[in-house]
Design goal:
- The complex is a heterodimer of chains A (about 550) and B (about 325).
- By secondary structure, chain A is mainly alpha-helical.
- Chain A has 3 domains: about 5-40, no CATH class; about 45-240, no CATH class; about 245-525, no CATH class.
- Chain A is built from 22 helices and no strands.
- The radius of gyration of chain A is 28 Å and the shape is globular.
- Chain A starts with 15 loop residues before the first helix and ends in a 13-residue tail after the last helix.
- By secondary structure, chain B is an alpha/beta fold.
- Chain B folds into 2 domains: about 5-220, Rossmann fold (3-Layer(aba) Sandwich); about 230-295, Alpha-Beta Plaits.
- In chain B, the strands form 3 sheets. Chain B has a 6-stranded mixed sheet with strand order 6-7-8-3-9-10, with helices on both faces.
- The model of chain B has no long low-confidence stretch (mean pLDDT about 85).
- Classes of the chains: A mainly alpha (about 550), B alpha/beta (about 325).
- Chains A and B meet through α1, α3, α6 and α21 of A and β5, α2, α3 and α4 of B.
């Protein structure tokens, strides 16, 4: 038993042979396989086991599966009839696959993600989630169990149409790579959409919000499915459109794949954080994941930069990263800087540990600093890459060092806008509770006002038709960055200087208000907890021998 | 070393806006004790039980289960605690065995241990014959048994039962009471809330009375009665001169509310046991023919009605 002391349980066997008989496979190959499967089943996520049992008996599954089979059968008949008599001598695989693909995408891209959403939302509505949450299952296990169940349903739907898809290959005209490519990416999209569905299910417990969210999700899924089907069917029909022989195509696919996986993991972590216990640390894992995504982004962009030697890649790298961090930063700043004693027990204690890991702790100040640190890292990497390229002479330099002004300005703008938004929310916190949504809306409002206000002001002064860039547009990040990218900002050299100085001032002002969050120190673990830990893991103490510069375990 | 309480509520507060659902509640429950938690609707019973079950966190204060804080060590508390809420929380398209099997897996039980736990719980709750029956086809009493089974599937040392007997027929209530008593006899610590006070009085070692989020009294029914009720109701049977006895009693300062019913005289007396003995002695010395003299026992309902005011927030 993993979580309960076996020795004290009335369920524990007095006969040691009882368990070993079930565990050790013996006899025929079939018995060994059966024992192996049984052992594997024991290790499966309980939610997956329960959902699989439930799903196979549910009306929704039976109806969807039957409709899928019926649709597949009807299309087989109809398609062959339409192709006849050419089906005997002309390749009809592409035509038939288009139909099967459309039939498959509806359950896989609409029903499965929506079922994942409903599955978690219903647990919260019916009160069963509360019963789940007090078991030994972690919130992450609950979410991954739901996602696993969605994936199982996908595979069942895939298997239902597998004979039909095999039939299209036999009809010729379509290669196995295209078929696998389509099915694989549809599967990935379904997993990604299901993980989004799970996040949406955790947004609110209020009935009216749940209804609204379910409608929005359903509409969104229908849109995605429509465009997905449209683009992939055109890929099936147009044989020339695929670039399977091109290495760059596969590199791009690999890059997209890594981002899909990292985003699916991120969504699972977000959903798990949303449903975790109030005193849990909901932020650190998400911040680690943000860091992983930043690393992936920089890594892939650096790779493409070296490979293609295009200056535009630097612009894409910084623009996308700045948008990403502006969004992530606005969310992180909405966190309350309250660390439960439970979280404080695992805080780093050494100087090095505190310096590096404090920014992973929950809190608006640490969130802002974490965002700035990542932006500065991005800036550093971009400048080093750009300068190296200039020195090596392999970059197709377009306008000297215009890109330097662009990237530094973009980063400075994010620092300023997020910083000001945080200062505003700090003021709002004096008046009442500030949620993550409110912080995000404040940031968004400031970003929009920063663009709209100078535009209206200058249009009012000079008239819309005669407007040209001036220092008044300093807060207008859209126009200023466009001017910087075009190399026109040299005539307004004061603008970048003011923005850089503002960024420095705003950052240090925010740092000042983050002191409370930095001052958090580790709390000693209660003796009762240590005693329980020793009972559960008797060998842990022996393993805690070494010392680490990142931590000081003696304090516990 | 004194025995540590298994449940230790420490100045528990829970506010919802301006509503003080739980307001400074403290009490302890020792190992093997059945503690009855009683109070009118909206008194704060469910809120405090939910905090204890790690489903909510207090605004202030803490609660310890076997020495672990429900705020800081919920995972350790959960291993030791089984919670039966005042709703069923069952799944559609699942039968009894599958339902219990799922929770056994969720509590980390594996292999033979899980199978034994299922057999034990189904036997204890007498659900063996209904193992393959879909949950939606169960009666309310059977669902309550199933939920009790779920809460004890991982063999917790503490059980929190919120209104377990609500809506059950008399037979099911008696059987549930027997099960709870049996669990306590096996060393489980049980915190149970109910509106059916007569049942609580029979199964509980101690009770806590809560109203408007505040704990008004804690102890055995007799202790609360002693602590809260200064008057006791005395019944005397007098063979002759009943009116004279009544007049004699009226002239005493420690007697109130005299009611005569044939040979029976009922009155309220202020004082402890020795004062009651003195009163009887004086009545005999006054040569009244006293055939019967005794204290009318107050039920938990009487105590509850006396202690609470029926005010809701």
């Amino acid at each position: 038993m993993s979580s309960i002391d076996s020795s004290s349980s009335p369920f524990a066997s007095g006969d040691p042979t009882e368990i070993s008989e079930a565990v050790i496979p013996k006899g025929t190959l079939w018995q060994m396989m059966e024992s192996g499967i049984e052992l594997g089943g024991e290790r499966l996520n309980p939610i997956l086991v329960k959902e699989a049992r439930q799903a196979l008996k549910s009306k929704q599954f039976v109806i969807t599966f039957t409709l899928l089979l019926l649709a597949g059968w009807v299309w087989s008949m109809l398609g062959v009839a339409l192709l006849s008599p050419g089906v005997y001598y002309a390749p009809g695989g592409r035509f038939m696959l288009s139909g099967y693909f459309i039939i498959l995408t509806i359950p896989v891209l609409v029903i499965v993600p929506f079922s994942a959403f409903r599955s978690l939302a219903a647990e919260r509505e019916d009160g069963t989630f509360e019963l789940l949450s007090i078991t030994a299952l972690s919130s992450r296990q609950i979410v991954t169990g739901k996602l696993g169940s969605a994936m199982l349903q996908m595979l069942v739907y895939y298997s239902a149409l597998a004979p039909c898809i095999a039939f299209t290959y036999l009809l010729r005209g379509i290669d196995i790579v295209t078929i696998v490519f389509l099915l694989f990416w549809t599967l990935v999209a379904s997993v990604l959409l299901s993980s989004i569905g799970l996040v949406v299910a955790t947004v609110s417990r209020a009935r009216h919000w749940q209804v609204l969210l379910s409608v929005l999700l359903l509409v969104g899924l229908c849109f995605v499915t429509f465009f997905w089907t449209l683009s992939f069917v055109s890929l099936i029909v147009d044989a020339q459109a695929t670039a399977f022989d091109d290495t760059d195509f596969w590199l791009a696919m690999a890059a997209i794949m890594t981002f899909c996986i990292s985003h699916a993991v991120m969504f699972v972590l977000i959903a798990a954080a949303q449903i975790s216990f109030a005193s849990d640390n909901r932020s650190t894992k998400l911040r680690v994941m943000l860091l992983v995504q930043q690393t992936l982004w920089i890594g892939w962009m650096a790779f493409f930069w070296i490979k293609f030697e295009e200056e535009e890649i630097l612009y894409i790298l910084v623009s996308v990263a700045c948008l990403y961090w502006a969004f992530a930063g606005a969310c992180l700043m909405g966190e309350a800087a309250i660390l439960s004693p439970r979280v404080k027990r695992s805080l780093p204690q050494s100087f090095l540990g505190r310096m590096c890991f404090t920014w992973f702790n929950p809190g608006s100040g640490t969130g802002y600093t974490f965002t700035v640190a990542n932006l500065l890292t991005l800036l550093l990497v971009t400048i080093v890459a750009g300068l190296t390229a200039e020195l090596e002479g392999f970059a197709a330099a377009r306008g000297g060092f215009d890109w330097v002004i662009f990237v530094t300005l973009a980063v400075a703008y994010v620092i300023v806008y997020l910083g000001v938004a945080r200062l505003v929310t700090l003021l709002l916190r004096q008046l009442g509770r500030v949620t993550m949504l409110l912080t995000f809306l404040v940031t968004l409002f400031l970003c929009v006002i920063g663009v709209a206000l100078p535009l209206f002001f200058q249009a009012w002064l000079e008239g819309y038709s005669r407007m040209s860039y001036s220092i008044v547009q300093m807060s207008n990040w859209c126009w200023t960055l466009e001017e910087a990218a075009d190399g026109n900002l040299l005539t307004f050299s004061l603008v970048p200087i003011i923005i850089y100085c503002s960024a420095v001032v705003v950052f240090f002002l925010n740092l000042l208000f983050a002191i409370y969050e930095v001052e958090q120190v580790r709390l000693a673990t209660p003796e009762r907890v240590l005693q329980d830990e020793r009972e559960m893991h008797p060998s842990t103490d022996e393993k805690r021998g070494g010392s680490s510069p990142w931590d000081d375990l003696k304090a516990t | 070393m004194p025995e540590q309480p298994v449940i230790d509520m420490r100045r528990l507060h829970r506010f919802f806006g301006s509503t003080r659902a739980v307001n400074d509640i403290s009490f302890e429950v020792m190992k093997g004790e059945v503690f009855g938690y009683i109070g009118p609707n909206g008194a704060g019973k469910t809120t405090s039980m939910r905090i204890l079950a790690t489903l909510d966190i207090p605004t202030y204060g803490d609660a310890l289960v076997d020495g672990f804080s429900v705020i800081n060590d919920p995972d350790r508390v959960r291993r030791r605690l089984g919670f039966m809420p005042d709703y069923f929380g069952t799944y559609a398209d699942v039968n009894c065995r599958e339902y219990l099997d799922f929770f056994a897996r969720a509590y980390g039980l594996r292999g033979n241990e899980r199978r034994r736990a299922l057999a034990h719980v189904m036997g204890f709750t007498k659900l063996d014959g209904l193992a393959e029956k879909p949950i939606r086809g169960l009666s309310k009493g059977m669902k309550q048994r199933l939920c009790l089974g779920r809460s004890m599937i991982h063999d917790p040392s503490v059980l929190i039962l919120d209104e377990p007997a609500a809506g059950l027929d008399p037979r099911a209530r008696i059987e549930l009471r027997q099960m709870i008593r049996e669990l306590a006899d096996n060393g489980k610590t049980i915190l149970v809330s109910s509106h059916i006070l007569t049942e609580l009085a029979e199964m509980c070692d101690r009770v806590g009375i809560i109203e408007r989020g505040e704990l008004l009294a804690v102890g055995t029914v007799a202790e609360i009665q002693r602590g809260q009720i200064t008057h006791c109701q005395i019944k005397a049977r007098v063979l002759e001169n009943v009116a004279a006895v009544a007049t004699w009693l009226e002239n005493r300062g420690d007697v109130e509310s005299i009611r005569v019913d044939g040979q029976l005289i009922r009155f309220s007396h202020v004082g402890e046991s020795d004062a009651q003995a003195a009163l009887l002695r004086e009545m005999i010395l006054a040569e009244f023919a006293i055939a019967e003299f005794g204290i009318e026992q107050r039920s938990l309902e009487d105590v509850f009605m006396h202690v609470t005011r029926g005010v809701v927030q």
